[in-house]
């Protein structure tokens, strides 16, 4: 899976690159890099984008790569709400942390490839037309008049992690190690599990790359040996690396990473209907505009709404496979399709991604399904952060190796690797990123809270921290610390930005944190902690367990 040579190649960054990814974990790097870190935070990895962005329809200010929904390359968004201060409250230090990390950028799902291939087939069947334009070709479309035209190269791997995806996870592992040295636990000689991962190859590989960045070449060596021993790369058939606890993703295994798998009433198609309804509204006008634009150089061109949909996916997955484009030459990087759309069209496509995600893993799920499925995540987070205080509920698939190493030393950092749905369920259970309305036919609220590009892009993560605060730190307006000289608080860092916990019902400070006890006492959290897999509430929402 990983080789030392491969890790070495990815490890050869410039100092500026190191600064970029460490900034995404609210980190001011030490030593020689610290001075450079005073400059405004840069993107986290090479195919990321900056965080200072507004919904501006001017080409010069519009960054389309931050609007590809859950298929966006990782970037650090603004704090939520934006008035929050970044970092940790003065006088507070992290005593425990629970990381929930989505896999990195991947190739398309199998059911998405036919749509992209349909576009490629249309272009290939009309190669004579596209290679012999009868007039000036718009610059964004010049790639079609090349002798080779455009070919779909995204069939190289279905669902597999891409090269940018591997780099995202490796870089995040390095950043976390440097940001929280006091939470680090040295791997023991008995091969105890260092992390938990869902049983999908892209998730297991993501965890392996992260741990290679976090722990170094000893972990990379064992990962490489594990992959070589089997000769296969599919997580469902390959023995997992010895340092990973891999949890099955099936209908027989209760798991907070994939709780929907054991919920018989859940169906991924729950997001398809609202997405299709919006597609019928926004795709035809784009097809009409493109056909009118291209009628001069290519008379008779007839792109359909389905072709337009394929173009959007070719943009997103071309970016996932090759990184953000730096030129019109597709062979260099990126996808030429990203530049053929107007900013407003990209934003309309983004709304489709948001509708779909919200429909199958968020507030669009029927009844209390989203809150129930996400409640298992809340239970795991609070159980780990509350250890030593008698707080939190017993976890689903409780893993003692995550709490204590073989020598008996307590672990202060829990590492978990998952899917976008995992994070979305958790947000929903806590009432975060909620909107009053989300109409499938529009109009589109450009300032909506549920924006999957900001919430669950590729390599997205939740970092939940328990903070121990002295007298000067972490007291919210109108809230007593309750502990005199110190108190425990909870903070959520979502994709490198502080995310305020106020919607749960707790009183937050200017960093978005609230008292741990206050958090546990809110109605949202209490409801989440009252959910147990297979109990009456679960059966009411999901049917028989």
Automatic annotation (TrEMBL):
Q: Which domain of life is it from?
A: Eukaryota
Gene Ontology terms for molecular function? acid phosphatase activity
Q: Which SUPFAM superfamilies match?
A: Phosphoglycerate mutase-like (SSF53254)
Regions crossing the membrane: none
Keywords noted in UniProt: Hydrolase
| Protein name in the entry | 3-phytase
Give me the ranges of the annotated region Disordered.
227-257
